[in-house]
Amino acid sequence: MSDLLLRNIRPMGGKPADILIREGRIARIAPGIEAPGVATEDGAGALAIPGLVEAHTHLDKTTWGMPWYEGRRGGSLQDLIDNERNARIPLGLDVHRQSMRHAVALIANGATHIRSHVDIDTDHGLTLLEGKLRTREALRGLIDIQIVAFPQSGLMVRPGTLELLDAAMAEGADIVGGLDPSSMDRDPKGQLDAIFALAGKHGAPIDIHLHEPGELGAFTMELILERTQALGMQGRVGVSHAFHLAMLPEGRTAALMERIAALDVAIYSTGHPSAAIPSLKAMRAAGIRVGIGCDGIRDTWGPWGEPDMMHRARVVGMKNGLRRDDELEMLLDTASGAGAAAIGVAGHALSEGAMADITLLAGETLAHAVVLDEPRPLVIKGGRITARAGRAVVDAP
Amino acid sequence: MSDLLLRNIRPMGGKPADILIREGRIARIAPGIEAPGVATEDGAGALAIPGLVEAHTHLDKTTWGMPWYEGRRGGSLQDLIDNERNARIPLGLDVHRQSMRHAVALIANGATHIRSHVDIDTDHGLTLLEGKLRTREALRGLIDIQIVAFPQSGLMVRPGTLELLDAAMAEGADIVGGLDPSSMDRDPKGQLDAIFALAGKHGAPIDIHLHEPGELGAFTMELILERTQALGMQGRVGVSHAFHLAMLPEGRTAALMERIAALDVAIYSTGHPSAAIPSLKAMRAAGIRVGIGCDGIRDTWGPWGEPDMMHRARVVGMKNGLRRDDELEMLLDTASGAGAAAIGVAGHALSEGAMADITLLAGETLAHAVVLDEPRPLVIKGGRITARAGRAVVDAP
After folding, report:
1. Domains of chain B
2. pTM of this prediction?
3. Interface predicted TM-score of the whole assembly (ipTM), two decimals
4. Are B337 and B50 in contact (CB under 8 A)?
5. Does A68 contact B364 at a Cβ distance shorter than 8 Å?
6. Portion of chain B with pLDDT greater than 70, in percent
7. Which of B57, B54, B8 has its CA nearest to residue B296?
């Protein structure tokens, strides 16, 4: 935990000021701070925001930095899952190396927090988790990594997976994952009862991938909401994707969103470019905690994406048809302070007493910064500089 | 028209070869060409494709390189059109300067051809066209610019516009434009009869913006197809956006696409991120000539976009859910050889006798090049080098 005087930045796009950091926390924000003996960094007038938050990705999947992968398939979700599970070993997809590459690139591009899923299946056991735990350890102090134990190949349909999830939680995963309890597992009651029980056992939150469309997705969401309420899990459950919220009549969507907000269930959206996605503005207006994430980056599923939350903010903003400055500011907040709240990190803000997790952005205004594809001038985590001019202070293998 | 020996490139991602250019045309493609006295350029193993083709943009609208514009609005298409028409003069949006910035950036990023619309309305008369004609002249030999005289604010609803379109065609515009004949002009027969007559008078092709949804768009498309057939305009008519082709029952879409292909009407898609768009694969499979374009870049309508056809190819590819290598190759072709055919430029290929309009790309394979966000190593137009390492050989004002 470091002391640092960050001079000449524009907090949240406002007037120029300095930020004094003491023991890793923001001690003071004001113009012209004097702090003799404290290391000083000149922000050169850049914008300052709370560090970027990657709320939904898969650090264990990327081929970033590896030779081009030619084996991608079309087909169903099941085809894509099977192709990946079968390709990992022949491809030589070392999870520690690849998650380091992915996470270090996120740091370089301004992230201070990551929530990442890791595949837990009966073919790989806990080996993928172990690679990622090493990465979390190697990057401790540079970026916070939350790990979701994720039954990518199904839970009820692959006996033995629940026991592996239990072991994963014991070994260091933070969050119990789920996946399409109806369409994938064919047993929504079975999967949801199992993962809520596991979360109870470990005192852990839950994060469920829910791709299910229309009324099927709404049905599964209702089952999730019922359990959240019955088990007192308000504020501890998140649902990723939630495509169904873009496929229902307006009144039905509004009623669901109201209940999601009331039970404080978070939604994580990746702004999926070719799928229907729930409206960011509607979710925020309903009072839902929302985070955004890059999802998989150049993995066996698809060739797209960059390990960069500003790139993803643009994808999400374009997909949501955002145009106005106030809309772009809301988008940036969703990738920063609000996104942190959505993954359970409170108080992620440029305010006195908060952790000094700060990202500088180029641009005239916050809205301008969203569309400007330029390197982040400086990234600070707990008062420590983690990246400068688009390059992280650590190298990836 | 220049001679050049381009050494050590991989034509269409194939084995390393050289390309000999004589008088601006491709004279020979083979390994180890000797051409004493001819200037030589080392491609360093880069991929080579026919130059990128921007098939739908608005060079007269961008604020690129200007201070951040804070006045963007939400609202209807009409609101966006009115906001822009009223903002141009207070903003100081000089069309010559801005179209130069936009076009030079497209060159830097590998384009050799642009089709650009220019607003013709009763507020601005032909002043916007004149700025763009100066740009076309200034960049002659560096990039080919086709200009569509575009009634952005409506034709039948703004008397005097048709006469201005006529004058624009006389002054140097190449193509007669149209816009939402039903939803904007409230008189589809009136607008279409007028622009087909104007095209006949000037011996010019037609390019119609058609945002109209569902069966309304299909109705207008039918009116366009009927006139194309009756007037023998096969191969001379293009429709931009064509969102309706993404909103109809599958059989109806297939039948419309079949007729569009039979009458050789081209479709230009921008891969609009927040709208329904016609399937690139379905259109190509139906035999339709398809081009893609960036549409407006950071203009009064919206903050998004880059003046870069590789960036746009990624937007279109993500929107279309393309994953496999063969799909990415099809996408790249749509931004290159096939896109040229769609705007009426035949023979845009790496073949002996073709114009030496060539773009080099970084990457292991053509598919890899699509997702790789790196500067274009070299761009050649008619044998002349127009950009190197992501920088054009000319400066914009």
Report:
1. 4-50+349-392 (2.30.40.10), 52-342 (3.20.20.140)
2. 0.96
3. 0.95
4. yes
5. yes
6. 100
7. B57
